[in-house]
Design a protein that fits this description.
It is built from 8 helices and no strands. It is mostly helical. The protein is globular, with a radius of gyration of 15 Å.
Length: 172
């Protein structure tokens, strides 16, 4: 919950984003049944997924649906809870993503195991491919995130290989 509170505080500082604090309160209430560490993990996971979805400066409905599906499976959330988490991740990424991308990804790295980081990397490709194609901006963002998560380029490429048919740069 600490990560959510920290992000809520950042948004609250921006008068134009003050209306979003209600959404943040709602997500905190929805995740109160989770232990604090699990809630922080889920919040960071969703934010990083939204980060790759927003790499091309828009988040498609198919990408949000994929984030919702991945978050729901990860934390055994209800449809409603997963929707709130996905919508919150979208809002936060669009409003504070530029300044919070690295800190949130670093937070995810600190609260996750290597296996969980590999699972996130796989999910990043799934979200990017949700609209049928992984464009160059999304691919570059995944490379950045993989680096921030501590993966080597060969490790990232090994995961990327299974998404080869979706890479727009190779479709030409």
């Amino acid at each position: 919950m600490q990560l959510l509170r920290r992000v809520r505080d950042l948004i609250a500082e921006d008068a134009s984003a003050a209306a979003e604090t209600g959404a943040l309160d709602a997500i905190e209430q929805r995740l109160d049944h989770l232990e604090a560490d699990k809630a922080r993990y889920v919040a960071a996971f969703a934010f990083v997924l939204a980060r790759v979805a927003y790499a091309d400066l828009e988040i498609a409905d198919t990408e949000i649906a994929e984030i919702r599906r991945r978050v729901r499976a990860l934390a055994s959330l209800s449809e409603e809870e997963a929707s709130i988490v996905a919508d919150l991740a979208r809002t936060l990424t669009q409003q504070v993503g530029g300044t919070q991308n690295y800190p949130v990804t670093r937070e995810f790295r600190s609260v996750s195991t290597r296996a969980q980081r590999i699972a996130l990397l796989e999910c990043l490709f799934a979200v990017a491919a949700a609209d049928g194609s992984i464009d160059s901006a999304e691919s570059a963002e995944i490379v950045n995130i993989a680096d921030e998560l501590g993966f080597t380029r060969p490790e990232m490429n090994a995961v990327r290989a299974s998404w080869r048919e979706h890479l727009a740069v190779l479709a030409r």
